[in-house]
User: Fold CopC domain-containing protein from Microbacterium dextranolyticum.
Amino acid sequence: MSRSRSLAIAVLAAVVGVLGFASPAAAHDELIASTPSIGEQLASAPSEVALTFSAEVLTIGAAVIVADGAGRDWVADEPVVTDGVVTVGLQSGMPDAGYEIRWRVVSEDGHPISGLVPFTVGDASPLERTPAATGAATDETGPQAAMQEQGAHEDQGVLRILLIGIGGAIVAVAVFTLIQLLRRKKGTRST
Assistant:
């Protein structure tokens, strides 16, 4: 076998290995629907919110907040996760206002995902997000702090793919070296 053919086989093996492991790691569940839907204007306050995901999500780590402009959380109980749908009941007496569903779940592959779903009750204006004051003291516990950590978890996904690529390159070099050693042994036996 020629040296270039051996190298081509080793590179092909590495590419197959990297693609085989990187593709599942890059695909995460995602929110595909919500009740209320994004930007929906409701005539009256809902009694619950539901978030539907593209696949099953883990029950551990599920967090939902339904906040008004003052930051009050209107969630009445713990989220219930069933067949890729996260449902949570709301307190009664929600006034006409803009609201935001802030959610965080752990996808089937163990990767946390989060997002926002704004909606409005009555003729109120949508909730306007104001930039957080720098240097202000905040409560760093509970679901809100967990949602803010989402950016750090996304960086871990990029690192995982990078490490898989490096691993594939190492496998390619190892296969190439093994082929070269076997060729040399075969060559020394025949002489």
Q: What stands out?
A: The domain at 29-130 is CATH 2.60.40.1220 (Immunoglobulin-like). Strands lie at 31-35, 41-42, 48-53, 57-67, 80-82, 85-89, 97-107, 112-121. The helical segments are 3-26, 143-148, 150-190.
